[in-house]
Amino acid sequence: MPPPGCDFETPKESHFEIAYKRGHSKVKGAARKIEGWNTGPGNEGAGATDAFDPGRQSRATSFAHRSAATRAA
Fold first, then answer.
1. Dihedral sign, CA of 30, 25, 59, 15?
2. Are 60 and 53 in contact (CB under 8 A)?
3. Which of 37, 39, 47, 49 has the highest CB neighbour number within 10 Å of its CB?
4. CA distances from 41 to 35, 46, 51 (A)
5. In the prediction, which pLDDT does 5 show?
6. Separation CA 22–CA 12 (nearest Å)
7. What is the pLDDT of residues 8-65, one digit of tens each?
8. Gyration radius from the chain CA atoms
9. Taking the model in full, what pTM does it have?
10. Within its chain, how far is the Cα of 16 from the centroid?
């Protein structure tokens, strides 16, 4: 497994990381959202999102740019 903040050599679709430090206020909200995927009525979570949706790709690109800028600082 690579160190935190690095990419896997071979991407793994089921792997994700929460890009906030432990204790960050947004971690609790992310945990609630993920828990909701398991307890909700369905149609959420893995496989329910179109990874090629232009808006989603735009947000992912923005996140990648912010992450790169944070690592460079």
1. negative
2. no
3. 37
4. 12, 14, 21
5. 56
6. 23
7. 677 666 677 777 787 888 888 878 887 777 776 666 665 567 778 899 899 999 999 9
8. 14
9. 0.36
10. 5
